[in-house]
């Protein structure tokens, strides 16, 4: 009942556009248009797998992610989940880790979000990457793909990455992720389905590289990494370079 009431309130009091601040629905047409760019791929500083993102972490995309993460704009889950689904689809169509072992059925994948610290979950009220992963998986299932999101990883004690330089980020995160519970159980959940590690933003690649390492330590090879936004500045393929 409370949810129905909230939805009605949304209709009566429209929020502001998370991209430009215009008073409108979740996103105005101009800002939605700014998000409709080709997916891009980067080879981040850390990690062996290339990272596919739905766009550059700047402008409207950055505003939307910040509004979602820091200002609890859950109405953005739909559009951000759709963007993440596009990146996942690009990984499935051009698997950067092809030949790494698993040979699941075409169009099947298990999405594994990078784990959130307990502190981040407390502060934000949810594991925001896992929420986006579930939304992306739902989009892809609606398209007929066998895609599930499974939070197989957990994090030990380490600080949030915000405000750290790239080397400090790497030191800060290395060795902190692990498969939750017995590795055998996680392997049973996955079977031979390709695994794609998810994050919201790729800056140096340190966080996703750590998740890939933790999965590999439990003999679960990751096939690719998909994110919503790739931070500008690193080496990357341009929008015209395929994925
Ligand atoms: Zn706008």
Q: Unreliable stretches, pLDDT < 50, 5 or more residues?
A: 236-243
Shape: globular
Distinct small-molecule ligands in the complex: zinc ion
Q: What is the H/E order?
A: HHEEHHEHHEEHEHEHE
- What's the Cα radius of gyration? 18 Å
Overall structural class, as computed from helix and strand content, comes to alpha/beta
Major beta sheet summary = 6 strands, mixed
Helix residue percentage: 25-40%
User: Total number of helical segments?
Assistant: 9
Report on the architecture of this protein:
This protein has 243 residues and is an alpha/beta fold. It has helices at 2-12, 29-35, 59-70, 77-93, 118-124, 128-142, 166-173, 183-190, 206-217, and strands at residues 40-42, 51-56, 108-113, 146-149, 153-155, 177-179, 195-202, 222-230. The protein is 40% helix and 17% strand. The strands form two sheets. Strands 1-2-8-7-3-4 form a six-stranded mixed β-sheet, with helices on both faces. It has a two-stranded antiparallel ribbon with strand order 5-6. Helix 9 (206-217) links the parallel strand 7 (195-202) and strand 8. Helix 4 (77-93) crosses helix 6. The protein is globular. The model is unreliable at 236-243 (pLDDT under 50). The chain binds zinc ion.
